[in-house]
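Section handout 9: paired folding examples.
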Amino acid sequence: MAEHLGVRGEDPDGEGPPAVSAVMADPARLTHNAVVATPAPASEEAPELDSEPITASTLEAPAPSTTRVRDRALAGDRWIARVLRVGAVLSGGMFVLSLGLEALPGSESTHVAIDQLRKAAASLLLVTPVARLGVAGTLLGLRGEWRYAVIAAGVLGLLALAVGAGIQA
């Protein structure tokens, strides 16, 4: 088996561009696959290259724009998570507070407060996913994904129609 496996482009003059080869002679010396640029014969068209192996330190980092897009997407996910978390924690807190009020002596104002807290907690628990849909639609619109932003707006519109029809009935 050959010590170097070279890949060269075809050139009518017989001189090609620098070859890229993989060393295959001694697998015990290699800890990972390495691509080594070997210089082609010197000519005016193809300058000589160093035969330095490509390592992790010579590779370039991803473009900053890719990182920014990912950071913006994660920031949107964080906003959605915050909306859901705040809605669930506030609703749960209201339910726990209403249970704590039951330990007080039974008066008319205490029963009214308990009833109001439980209704508000249930309403908040139901409104939280709707608020999440609004935040997600807004964030999708800001990212330029208009199709999904319009779908989110349509769903919110249908929910508003259903609530309006339910209130009038």
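Moving on to protein 2 of 2.
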Amino acid sequence: MDRIAPARRDSPVSFSLPEITSAEDAVKASSALLSAVAAGEVTPDEAGRVMALLTSHKQLVETCDLESRLTALEQKQ
């Protein structure tokens, strides 16, 4: 059975994070993550993996924001 459906190497992490719609929100989410580590809700290893996700999401939010701003400037011309 292990070969058909191998055991998971990680487990889900559950804790609260604010919605991230701006770079500022990403900083708030990072602070919430650090608070969760300090409270023992998540391990530092889990936090590192979640932080990588937050960083990627922040980059996507910034890219989307830049695209929107560029589109708005192009429409003004």
